[in-house]
Amino acid sequence: MVDIKINNFAISRWRAEFVDPAMERAYHLHVEADVAQFLARALKLWALLLTVFAWADWLQLGNSPGFYILSGLRMAHVCLLLCLAFVLPLKPHWATWGWPVTIVAIAGYPLFFAYPYIMPDTGTMGLAIMMMMLLSVYVFVPNRLGLTNLVALIGFAMVILNSIIAGATLSQLILVTIVLAWPVSIGYAAAHRINTGNRKAFRALRLAENTNLELEEEMTRRKTLEVELQRQALTDPLTGLSNRRQYELLFRRELERHRRHGTRLAMGMIDLDHFKRINDEHGHEFGDQVLRTVAETLQEPLRSCDILGRFGGEEFILILPEASLQQGIEVAERMRKALRSAAVIKDGKTIHITATFAITEVCDKDENISDLIRRADEALYQGKRDGRDRVMEAAAA
Question: Contact 336/355 with Cβ under 8 angstroms?
């Protein structure tokens, strides 16, 4: 789960960026593709407008050296704009990095500052163009606010310097400063709102994602808990075998299939021999260990569809779908031999375990598992009387 803290989302009042560098990097990764695409379009539009306005220079200057100087500066800036526009799809991180577009924007200033020397009577027009450019770099050219401020500051300073070189009076300098401060202030406020709004949207998205992750994890935990509770409800906690609720449910399902499709269905009971003696001589904790060993051993000869459950104490239930009485006896015999070969070590002594098996098969008059248990139970008693460690047949009457 992503560890998100509210403090990580603090936004700088002046830079309009996340205070936490890691969160700012995450924001850049999230938006860089969209920002790169939008910035590329803005740069192409910028280049187009610069090219179109070359026509106005021709009308003013005609075929003169001044026109070629301005055209050279204009085309050089157009080339820079287009180069960056076409590189951005290959390097989208440049868009959020900010320095490439900052450098390209600053590279356009020589064109604007050449105008007063080539066309001295266009001072007012040049100032108006500079105002539009300052506003545009804030609003229409996506960039980090601090770098946009740098672009605006350099432009602002160069206009003041040009005015001083041109011999402007103090009142004129104050007027130029006030005029340029207007687009810078408006542009800064607009860019600040856009940058802050975008980061607030990112914050809401990350918080929503984090909430969704927490919900998904909680749902996963609940599902895991439900599965575990269901397993516990259907499983004997000591041996891991099906408990009475589970094996009776599975038997009813197999009984319905037997009646619907006419398949064979065998059932058996298993009773460990002399288990009480093991408990009395070695303790109940060792007796539990024996039961776990027996459960593992009895499952080895079974098919995946066979069902082994714990009936209670040292008794077990065996359900064999699609098995006849004779097949059930053969399975029980393999289980008996496997159990006889198994052993449990206690204080350096090997203790062998045996069991008596009773197998029966479902017949038409059987209504539920209790009918088969009664038959198998009677056969078990007979097997105990006959010497134990054997498989008994409990044929239906």
Answer: yes
Are 309 and 236 contacting, i.e. CB atoms less than 8 angstroms apart? yes
What pLDDT, on the 0 to 100 scale, is given for residue 233?
A: 80
> Which residues sit opposite 77 in a β-bridge?
none
∠ CA 355-359-364, rounded to 5°:
160
Q: What span, in angstroms and rounded, lies between the C-alpha atoms of 124 and 116?
A: 10
Digit-coded pLDDT (tens) for 10-40? 899 889 999 999 999 999 999 999 999 999 9
Nearest CA to 78 out of 39, 108, 41 is that of: 108
Which residues lie closer than 8 Å to 314 by C-beta, 6 or more apart? 271, 272, 275, 291
Instruction: Supply the mean pLDDT for the chain.
Output: 90
Beta strand extents in the chain (DSSP E only): 265-272, 307-312, 315-321, 343-346, 349-352, 355-361, 391-393
DSSP three-state, residue 248? helix
The torsion of the CA quartet 278, 284, 290, 295, rounded to 10 degrees, works out to 130
Q: Which helix (H) or strand (E) holds 172?
A: helix 170-234
Is 256 among the residues known to form the active site? no
Measured in whole angstroms, the distance separating CA 11 from the mean position of its chain's CA atoms is 26
Whether 342 and 292 have beta carbons less than 8 Å apart is answered as: no
**Are 176 and 170 contacting, i.e. CB atoms less than 8 angstroms apart?**
no
Burial (CB < 10 A; 0-12, 13-18, 19+), residue 11, is middle
User: What burial letters (b/e) apply to 226-254, b meaning 16+ CB within 10 Å?
Assistant: eeeeeeeebbbeebebbbeebbbebbeeb
CA distance 254 to 265: 7
Q: List the catalytic residue out of 254, 314, 361, 393.
A: 314
Which token pair is 61? 């200057």
